[in-house]
């Protein structure tokens, strides 16, 4: 699979030689030429001399870095770094198609309409019946909160694990639509239930009146959104306008941690649990953190299965624990590393995060209108 990776750069990246593991300590002697007259053909005239930095996959084929980024300031050092993964958060207005984004807007409007009619609206949707079925298991808000999180986790991670097989059957775009069509309603229900019942649990501690706690929670929540998984930046793929892919990112936030979405979710959960301080918030955090810890393991497994030796190289020079690979020297930050964050997706995250904070009253009011 690794041979399918390609990097469309202005200049091709240098190649790296990675010998097969079994050949690291044992090499076979060269074979003598066959007896008799020997007339070398063009393909046999000399042994194939690979470039000094060619990286071989498990299938024995060259693996080039995938993704883009050499055309902007942050990508100038990509070739020198010998990346095997993609340049994350790369977004160039010149590469965008007006028709594709118009198509995306139409799809988004259709999805939101269908979500409201088929799931959210108590008169026509089945979301209320689904929540009633889950709520019938227990009168405890903590138990229901945890069950909703587990159901979402099983569906979301389960469908992610079956992605490769599912795409072979119905295609990449159809599977992405099916994946989003099932995951999105479950996520909305879980979020709305948390908003509506976040203060219904047993109060475990009360720190809202302590000076500096609000600022700490706000700053932690703000930072957590910068750990969004870079695939969420590819909105056209999320909506299946562009062909969805299983990406292997290597730049930007991935240099800090290989699983930024997990780290961001942990930060968000800890901040909100500290602020709310009750059993419902704790139950939600336990479910979400557990789901993302499993997702980190499952994501590594899927990438290793798809990209083989290329992912093993990326895994060796990154870390799950933030900054760990940087501290022990396995991750070498380029001098212009900061430029990998001066990109439109991160600017959009800043604006949306600030907007979401000030829109909290509106979000809460909308949630309270549902009998969830």
From TrEMBL:
It comes from the Eukaryota. The chain crosses the membrane at residues 101-120, 140-162, 174-196, 216-236, 341-360. It is found in: Membrane. GO terms for molecular function: 9,15,9'-tri-cis-zeta-carotene isomerase activity. It holds the Pfam family NnrU. One of its GO terms (biological process) is carotene biosynthetic process. Gene3D superfamilies: 1.20.120.1630. Its main location: membrane. Keywords: Membrane, Transmembrane, Transmembrane helix. It is a multi-pass membrane protein. Residues 144-363 form the NnrU domain. One of its GO terms (cellular component) is chloroplast. This is NnrU domain-containing protein. The lineage of its organism: Eukaryota, Viridiplantae, Streptophyta, Embryophyta, Tracheophyta.
């Amino acid at each position: 699979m690794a041979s399918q990776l390609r990097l469309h750069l202005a200049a091709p990246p240098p190649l790296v030689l990675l010998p097969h593991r079994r050949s690291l300590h044992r090499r076979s002697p060269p074979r003598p030429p066959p007896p008799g007259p020997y007339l070398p053909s063009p393909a046999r005239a000399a042994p194939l001399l690979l470039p000094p930095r060619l990286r071989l996959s498990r299938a024995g084929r060259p693996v080039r870095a995938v993704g883009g980024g050499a055309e902007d300031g942050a990508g100038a050092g990509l070739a020198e770094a010998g990346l095997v993964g993609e340049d994350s958060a790369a977004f160039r207005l010149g590469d965008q198609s007006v028709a594709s984004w118009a198509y995306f807007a139409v799809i988004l409007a259709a999805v939101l309409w269908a979500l409201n009619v088929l799931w959210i609206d108590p008169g026509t949707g089945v979301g209320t019946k689904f929540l009633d079925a889950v709520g019938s298991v227990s009168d405890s808000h903590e138990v229901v909160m945890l069950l909703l999180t587990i159901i979402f986790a099983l569906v979301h991670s389960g469908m992610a694990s079956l992605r490769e097989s599912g795409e072979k059957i119905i295609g990449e775009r159809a599977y992405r639509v099916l994946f989003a069509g099932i995951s999105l309603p479950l996520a909305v229900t879980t979020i709305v239930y948390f908003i509506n019942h976040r203060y219904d649990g047993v109060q475990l501690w009360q720190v809202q009146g302590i000076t500096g706690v609000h600022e700490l929670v706000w700053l932690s929540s703000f930072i957590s959104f910068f750990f969004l998984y870079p695939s969420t930046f590819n909105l056209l793929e999320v909506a299946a306008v562009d062909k969805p892919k299983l990406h292997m990112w290597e730049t930007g936030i991935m240099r800090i941690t290989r699983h930024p979405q997990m780290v961001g979710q942990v930060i968000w959960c800890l901040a909100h649990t500290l602020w709310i301080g009750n059993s419902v918030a704790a139950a939600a955090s336990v479910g979400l953190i557990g789901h993302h810890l499993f997702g980190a393991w499952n994501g590594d497994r899927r990438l290793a299965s798809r990209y083989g030796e290329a992912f093993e190289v990326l895994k060796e020079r990154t870390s799950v624990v933030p900054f760990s690979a940087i501290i022990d020297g396995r991750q070498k930050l380029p001098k212009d590393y900061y430029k990998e964050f001066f990109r439109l997706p991160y600017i959009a995250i800043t604006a949306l995060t600030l907007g979401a904070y000030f829109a909290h009253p509106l979000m809460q009011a909308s949630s309270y209108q549902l009998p969830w």
